[in-house]
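Fold this complex.
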Amino acid sequence: MDHSSPHTRKKNAVTIIDVARESGVSYSTVSRVLSGFEYVSDDTRERVLAVAKRLGYVANLQARSLAGGRSNVVGVLVPGLDNGYIIEVTRGIDEELNRQGYSLMLYTTHQQHGKETQFVSAIANGLCDGLLLVVPVVPDDYLDVLQQRKFPYVLVDQADSTRRHNSICSTNWQGAYDATQHLINLGHRQIGIITGRMDLSSGIERLEGYKSALATHDIALDERLIYPGDFFQPTGYTGGHHLLGLPTPPTAIFAGNDLMAFGVLQAAGERGVRVPDDLSVVGFDDIPYSVMMHPRLTTVRQLLDEMGRVAVQMLLKHIEQPESTPHHITLDTQLIVRESSAPPRHLKK
Amino acid sequence: MDHSSPHTRKKNAVTIIDVARESGVSYSTVSRVLSGFEYVSDDTRERVLAVAKRLGYVANLQARSLAGGRSNVVGVLVPGLDNGYIIEVTRGIDEELNRQGYSLMLYTTHQQHGKETQFVSAIANGLCDGLLLVVPVVPDDYLDVLQQRKFPYVLVDQADSTRRHNSICSTNWQGAYDATQHLINLGHRQIGIITGRMDLSSGIERLEGYKSALATHDIALDERLIYPGDFFQPTGYTGGHHLLGLPTPPTAIFAGNDLMAFGVLQAAGERGVRVPDDLSVVGFDDIPYSVMMHPRLTTVRQLLDEMGRVAVQMLLKHIEQPESTPHHITLDTQLIVRESSAPPRHLKK
DNA sequence: ATTTTCTCTGCAAGCGTTTGCATCACACAT
DNA sequence: ATGTGTGATGCAAACGCTTGCAGAGAAAAT
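Structure:
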């Protein structure tokens, strides 16, 4: 009838006090050995560390961060786990965090804007030492709160024109330019594009890169060849069908990202349009599945995991020195030519 | 010269005491309103809640769980983020956790067995209220620790023959049986298999299902058609090449999971073996990319995200009632027939 | 009218850390 | 010998919360 006490799970835990008792010093000394590493004599340090190890002591995170120390937890805010691109970045983040002895708290916004609660919690909670914002768009007032609280954070894959924040992103403009130029060099003149979300800097910049490449090569911009997308596969699919269904369909399509390129591939397949014979397709991101497609996808490689890793490094640096001025890093993209792009039909014979 | 005090970030935080002062009750009453919901008069509760809302109060997790309450954090232990299957499960977990007002702490083992530290931390830390183990193999002694500490946990996608643990998995045997039978019914007799990791119950069961289906239909087992895999794409690729390079190659290949099936598709493509004309391929999992492949992959659908969701529900139930006896849930699989499987060549004409 | 029971509230003791301050011993310069 | 600085240590006060215990009324039972 009678159940266990509410504190059941508290048992067994080795605390700093146990270590102190066992090694014959005060618990504050133990604390200093474990975190501060200052003003402790060498033999005391060694003795304490030995005991801690022997007892299997593991610091209690809540206590530590409650008392004002580090929790060694970093919060990662992502829109959702339904996107290869996000996964890749997160993978890089995770790896680096691991390497540096940090834990990862995952907050997903699920595209619901009301989910900012999570965000607030993340900082108000005080659980995290810092925040990695991989979400497409962050309301300015939230960033203001972060700044004002001097809470360390890094914007990942967001062009921060104001240079007010720590941020990292890729050369989206250049990548799109390269991709488009690649198609032009192959001989294509009718080049369609399925854009990314136009409320995101990456979406905008990629479209601009596309336009610039056309302009540089004196190809008139045809608005009908621009299909507005959202970075998700289904849009690539419908967009592909739409473009291929035009009176004079494009001979090449540049998709704003790989996922949408996959959709184009699928639409082409259904219409009996052969890639790359009848249609060239180029993507953006180079997520792992790009190379598994048939034909393997020509795309613009972003070092997504690298982006995650570097973001972590920036963040940790910022955690060390909260007063340091914001940095911005841009990662180069690279055109990866595979089998989904080729010269247009009329040039082949 | 002089830097900010170490406690800089502590400012601004609204504590339970502020709420208490503002609403004219003691802080313990506030605490009871916020977490206990017991023995508080209706109007006190309302008043406190109103004030809390107005002040934008958010409970401090560390303090709460330090003091013995719930942290509303669940730890999720995964091998890594490089696997569509894991992603899907995690996605389900994440969604359900979100819905239930929990946060997700992600621990990746990165296949390094030394990474059990993470594991120990997760519980010793006391940060998490419970643990979801999505990792392929968990040493028994760890599970013993969990049991002994009465720490809530659920094994995800692990056949727990002992029924000692809370666990959830799919009908791996049946799924493999169905897949193989599907190929047999199409007329295939030479059916190759690329197995999963044989130290995992899912790998073993799928192989058994394959064998049983063959036996039921009086097809002799040919050991040469069994290629040992590991659930990753490259192995599917090499396995595909290997099987297709045999003197009498199989007319169909059942891959232990979709990722390996993708590898087979790629190998077939390189060899000029056409799918499904010359070779039928069936996968397992039905990760989102399966439908993006060309040809679209016939596979055994596991409700991976559902598995994650249900796992969360089991865990939360167990957190509520730590003394409850372990449950086990099995989720049905479903054969999804798409274009990568067809009757063998010789039957077609 | 008195006792018992019950609902509600407050007090205070922790939870396991970090860290400012005080203390102490020792060496060094005076 | 006395003073001064310095490295090493300990004490105790937070950090923000939960919860056992006790007390205060009010309602119910005697």
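Residues 7, 10, 13, 15-17, 27-28, 31-32, 34-36, 59-69 of chain A lie near DNA strand C (CB under 10 Å from a C1').
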